[in-house]
Amino acid sequence: MSKTIAINAGSSSLKWQLYQMPDEIVLAKGLIERIGLHQSKSTVKFNGQSESQTVDIPDHTKAVKVLLDDLLRLNIIDSYQEITGIGHRIVAGGEYFNQSTVVGEKELALIEELSALAPLHNPGAAAGIRAFMELLPGVTSVAVFDTAFHTTMKDYTYLYPIPRKYYNELKVRKYGAHGTSHQYVAQEAAKLLGKPLDQLKLITAHIGNGVSITANYHGESVDTSMGFTPLAGPMMGTRSGDIDPAIIPYLIANDDELNDAADVIDMLNKKSGLGGVSEISSDMRDIEDGLQAKNKDAVLAYNMFIDRIKKFIGQYLAVLNGADAIVFTAGMGENGYLMRQDVIEAMSWFGMKLDPEKNVFGYHGEISTPDSLIKVLVIPTDEELMIARDVERLK
User: Fold this and answer.
1) Is 324 tagged catalytic?
2) Which residues are recorded as binding substrate (predicted)?
3) Which residue in the list 59, 70, 78, 146 is annotated as catalytic?
4) Residue 183 belongs to a domain
5) Are residues 13 and 124 in the same domain?
6) Which string of b and e fits 329-365 if b means at least 16 CB within 10 Å?
């Protein structure tokens, strides 16, 4: 039996899961927060227990050392030699990487070069890889890219209608994101439907704080809502999603708090979406509480959110010329039964019907009626497991 760690490193955090492979058993999981800040926190969950400690963690190398020491200290492993593979989630792979790959210095340099496409994610991920290479130099590291699944898109889909020199010289194009999640739930949907994936047309809706929707034709991504960066697509928790680009210079010229394009992009990423419109919260649970209280700002934010989700699903029904199933996943997708109800019922012309006894909190599987022309599924995502599987395949 081998042990593989799946890593999701951000600029100031490191989330991990330890698997026994090939059995795919989760032995432990944890989260290290506030890396580089005072009073960092490391939490480990294992055997039904949870333990946290507060300690200053100045960088990702120290974070990895804390993680590994916790595994030994809590007797989750007996020695580092039990760890045979490490998988790292990388948000942006650009055009360099169309599949998961074993990481050496050359690959790591390319991941760092692509930081402009994911400035909040790639630098932290690269730092995590370097830390593991330093502390466990003989263990295989594998990079698993959010963008890789979307590299099957055609050029007429991923190119923007702007002068070609911006693609030729600067590689400005649609890259997408959440690819590992979309790929996983599509595979699980095929199992649930009892049909080969290469015979299915699916629309997978990853709806969490970040939202992306993908058109999956016979197991491949043919279009996806996130674009050059994860800012594009439907309205999200704190992101605006698609807007008229002429708004950017207009706001710079008319708002004293916005000095340049970077300020506007920061606002569109962090202060918009559900949170910006409602001025209550970016969390759908709080928005739904506002609906119950008939708060007009919560009602507006909710209606805008439903409107944007419907529009992207509708687009992809056109792209695929119909679909076998709509698949909801991620935090809101898995738990937001009211959101699912309002999206699907507003698209009844397409022959989708929900079973109200199944479209409830905590239910996973098929939530449509037997006579629904397009099936509606709820499938929990598991990006960490996909990462562990790719490590097992490549090491």
Assistant:
1) no
2) 89
3) 146
4) no
5) yes
6) bbbbbbbbbbbbebbbeebeeeebbbeeebbeeeeee
